[in-house]
Each structure stands twice: as structure tokens, then as C-alpha cells.
Write a structure and sequence with these properties.
- It is a single chain.
- This protein has ten helices and twelve strands.
- The strands form three sheets. A five-stranded parallel β-sheet has the order 10-9-11-1-12, sandwiched between helices. A four-stranded parallel β-sheet has the order 3-2-4-5, sandwiched between helices.
- Helix 3 links the parallel strand 4 and strand 5.
- It starts with 20 loop residues before the first strand and ends in a 33-residue tail after the last strand.
- The mean pLDDT is 94.
């Protein structure tokens, strides 16, 4: 459930045996799919009034959910909690066809805010299942995105949670097997899982294009470059955000001496900064930039005022709004494209 920021005292500027600086990873924060989903809820509230219901968290970020609740959004676990005839938004992580059917059966006005890159994976699952392939879906059991993708072809999908599971998974026909993946995984771990699967199933088919989303990959590349020079990495993001959790792991794997995830600046602990000269900072793909700036302000109090941006890619991908929201209440087309508001 959403919670209020944890309030701590200001960080202290304690001398260390190295110049104090911050390496700020870029790209970081909001991606195009997250921006599209958040704005979809905001515009639905403008268009239809409060309440607008949202199945699951629209994106995995406590701050975003709390802000939308304040505007009149109501978050539910399942569509059977939504009053008949109401408007409901499906989250950026996507839903299974059974959820779409359940919403229709209740007469709900559904707005699909699924990230288009997740929708692409859904379509791949449908196509491969139609061709009678067994689908090895690399991802985390229980994650909403995995549930949605697996729900497109449940008889054909087996979830592979880790490289270790790749060593034990069984398939019916090794000549008719394909791998797909959750879009927010560690790129390196996913490729290791694929490598192990291919050792066992040499005829393993690849998806027609990379399933791990551009934003996930870009943020991991950026933090790899930062981590090698960082005594400490701080990742802004929520605990249920897969891509934020992966950033902590990637930072540790690529040279950071320590790495921690926080939702808010008030969670940064003084003891993390003991002996630290260089702090790396980044944020997950569902994190608004204001939360990163608050972390930088907190670090400034502790003497980390020299901020160097480490940029590894430019992002300009844009997604249009769900079709129900492309016109305003008067019927005029809204031509605004969404490309990662607050993204850096």
C-alpha cells in the first residue's frame, strides 16, 4: 500500500578522505510507457471525473500511486471490485484476456494503458501459441506483467524464473520451443538464462525482436558506467519495481562498493556515507524526476555538491494515449505525444 515519506533529520557533512561528488546516471526515471500510463489516469479523471478505478498499481511507484489517489483515482486488485458501469484503467504492466472479459461482463468502460512494448510481447505469445510452440517465458512468477503475458496462452507458457531453472525446465518438443521475456529484467541475467536454455534445447527460437525494453536496457547501461567509479549507488524506486531492484543488483555486479534502493530522500542513511567520496545516483523507469532531485538536495547537505551527469544514451521514443483519451471532452483531438515527462 502507498505510504508517506519517511522523515529523517538532514544529512551531516562529515569529512572523508576523497573529494565528494555525485555521478548522476542518464537516462534515468520515467520512460515513455510509464508516462503514457500515468497521463492516461490523469486525463481519464479530467474527462470522466472522480472516481476512476485502476486495476493494480498503474506503475510500480509509491509516490505516483499516492499522487493519483489524491486526484481521485481508486486502485483495486481485481475488476470485480469496480462498480458496474464505471471507468477502469488497466495498468502499464498489461492484463490477461480473462481480465478484459471480466471487465466487459461487468459493463465497465475499460481504458488500456498497457505499455506498447508489453503489448508486443503479448502478441508474440499469441502468435507462437497459434503455431503450437511451447513458450519459455523468462520472468518472475507473480509479477503482473508475467501474469498478463502468460494469460494470453496459458497452455503454452512455462515461466522460467532464473538461470538455475533453465537447467531443470522440461518441454514437450525441443524442436518447437521459443523464449520470450518480461520487459524489465536484468539484461545480463536474461542472456545467461537464454544461454543455458540453448545448451539444453539447441533449436530454441528467439523472439522476433528484443523483449527487454529500451528503457530498462538504457538505465542498466548507464548505471554500469557509474558503478565502476562509485563507492555508493543510490537507486530511487519502489520495492515492487522490478527494474529498480535490478538496478541495485547491476550496480553491485559492476563495481559499486555498496548500493541501496530508496523511495524517498528521507530514507538515505547517514551511515551509508561513511568514508564515501563518490555517490552514484539513478532511478527506475517509473520514478518521477522530482524524487531524484530531492535525493540530490539531501546529498548536497552532506557535502556532495559536485554533480556530474553520466549520459550513455538519448531517448526520444513517444507513445500516443489510449484511443479513448485522444480527444478532449469537446471532441477535439489531443495531439500531444508522450515521451517520458520528467525523464532525464
Amino acid at each position: 500500500m502507498p505510504r508517506v515519506p519517511q522523515v529523517r533529520g538532514r544529512l551531516k557533512d562529515i569529512p572523508v578522505d576523497a573529494p565528494k561528488r555525485v555521478l548522476l546516471a542518464s537516462p534515468r526515471g520515467y520512460c515513455a510507457g510509464v508516462d503514457r500510463a500515468v497521463v492516461a489516469v490523469e486525463k481519464a479523471l479530467e474527462r470522466y471525473g472522480s472516481p476512476v478505478y485502476v486495476r493494480k498499481q498503474i506503475v510500480h511507484n509509491i509516490h505516483v500511486v499516492t499522487e493519483l489517489e489524491a486526484q481521485g483515482a481508486i486502485f483495486v486488485d481485481e475488476v470485480d471490485e469496480v462498480p458496474e458501469g464505471s471507468h477502469v484503467v488497466f495498468s502499464a504492466h498489461g492484463v490477461a484476456p480473462t481480465v478484459v472479459t471480466a471487465a466487459s461482463d461487468r459493463g465497465l468502460h475499460a481504458i488500456d494503458a498497457t505499455c506498447p512494448l508489453v503489448t508486443k510481447v503479448h502478441r508474440e505469445a499469441v502468435r507462437f501459441a497459434r503455431d503450437d510452440f511451447e513458450i519459455l517465458l523468462i520472468g518472475h512468477t507473480g509479477h503482473e506483467e508475467v501474469e498478463g503475458t502468460a494469460g494470453e496462452a496459458p497452455e503454452h507458457v512455462t515461466v522460467v524464473n532464473s538461470p538455475e531453472e533453465a537447467d531443470t525446465v522440461e518441454v514437450r518438443d525441443p524442436s518447437k520451443v521459443v523464449w520470450l521475456s518480461q520487459t524489465t529484467l536484468s539484461v545480463d541475467e536474461t542472456m545467461e538464462t537464454v544461454r543455458r536454455l540453448r545448451e539444453r534445447f539447441p533449436e530454441l527460437h528467439d523472439p522476433p525482436s528484443d523483449d527487454i525494453c529500451y528503457a530498462t536496457q538504457n538505465r542498466q547501461v548507464a548505471i554500469k558506467k557509474v558503478a565502476r567509479d562509485a563507492d555508493l549507488v543510490i537507486v530511487v524506486g519502489s520495492a515492487n519495481s522490478s527494474n529498480s531492484v535490478r538496478l541495485v543488483e547491476v550496480a553491485l555486479e559492476h563495481g559499486a562498493k555498496a548500493a541501496h534502493r530508496v523511495d524517498y530522500a528521507g530514507e538515505v542513511r547517514q551511515e551509508w556515507l561513511d568514508g564515501v567520496g563518490t555517490v552514484g545516483v539513478t532511478s527506475g523507469a517509473s520514478v518521477p524526476e522530482v524524487l531524484v532531485q530531492e535525493v540530490l538536495e539531501a546529498l548536497s547537505d552532506a557535502g556532495y555538491r559536485d554533480v556530474e551527469q553520466v549520459r550513455t544514451a538519448e531517448e526520444d521514443l513517444m507513445f500516443s494515449l489510449p484511443k479513448e483519451l485522444r480527444q478532449d471532452a469537446s471532441g477535439h483531438r489531443d495531439d500531444r505525444a508522450l515521451g517520458g515527462r520528467g525523464r532525464a
